[in-house]
């Protein structure tokens, strides 16, 4: 039985208070109290506003989805140039990154929050289960593969990046930024780490690194312990990644004036803080070597280096089940999304020596 009519905005604000209380009690991760309220207010409350929550229909949900897709391109956010938010009682302004339509993955994640608001509204008696509209995306056909690099494109990118960071005329601050970016890309390409895993990586997660620092490269080995939002795993990377860990260690020691502690971030700013997004810097580098998009016109991102790693491993005969465990995914996902490993690149494996018997 419903208690009373309530607007969507009221239920959403009450949900935000519940969320913040759960974060304070340690029942939810801290990021829920930062990103989710901002999303709810910017998009959901802005669209549904004072409309009674029990009057919102499936047609309203579809209208919202179209409004959300257009928000930053032609809609309400097209003229916004910066994001403003509060942190520790201070008003912070952050320049807005590249404006684009939300990915399918992001849309699905946002709809999870919308469903939770409706479910909580049912618990509070503002509507009954039969009044909750269908909240889902139309099933879109998944792409056959994901934007990666061919080996030749990857080498072109590496050469361009090294040339940019070794430029004698650039400021040392910019040299630091470009070196950290290059190291990030190399480690991603030779480890298959996800962007979130790269960001969260601490020196204590580079297992056995300290033990081998003074040994020749061929006698050293490391394992990486990585953390995403909800999962963690320990895996091995290609030996080529190790050199770039050494460079990051050296940069930290020279800049900060001490060796890195286990809790210090591997990818850091000059002040020792955890590195934020490198999307803009990567976009500039990709533009320099005409590699912004792949042959289908799909834009490349930091994730493309993970795709490159998986493609390279497949092309060199690594068992798909072992590769799936190492990269924290499933063999079916690898089979579904990494079709860009062409027959030409697999030709040695497709031409075994046949026995006469």
Shape: globular
Number of domains: 2
Give the name of the CATH architecture of the largest domain.
Answer: Orthogonal Bundle
Mean pLDDT: 88
* The CATH C-level class name of the largest domain: Mainly Alpha
> What is the SS-derived class?
mainly alpha
Number of helices: 13
Q: According to CATH, what is the topology of the largest domain? A: hpI Integrase, Chain A
Helix fraction bin = 40-55%
**Sheet with the most strands: spatial strand order:** 3-4-5
The N- and C-terminal alpha carbons lie at a distance of 77 Å
Low-confidence stretches: none
Number of extended strands: 5
Question: Care to give the gist of this entry?
Answer:
Helices cover 45% and strands 6% of the residues.
Question: How is the secondary structure organized here?
Answer:
Blueprint lengths: L7 H17 L10 H14 L9 H13 L11 E6 L2 E6 L8 H20 L27 H15 L6 H18 L5 H6 L5 E2 L1 H4 L10 E5 L4 E4 L6 H15 L22 H10 L14 H13 L4 H8 L3 H7 L20
Antiparallel strand pairs: 1-2, 3-4, 4-5
Helix pairs in contact: 1-2, 2-3, 5-6, 6-9, 6-11, 12-13
What does this structure look like?
The protein folds into two domains: 8-131, no CATH class; 151-337, hpI Integrase, Chain A. It is 45% helix and 6% strand. The chain is built from 13 helices and five strands. It has helices at 8-24, 35-48, 58-70, 104-123, 151-165, 172-189, 195-200, 209-212, 242-256, 279-288, 303-315, 320-327, 331-337; strands spanning 82-87, 90-95, 206-207, 223-227, 232-235. The N and C termini lie far apart (77 Å).
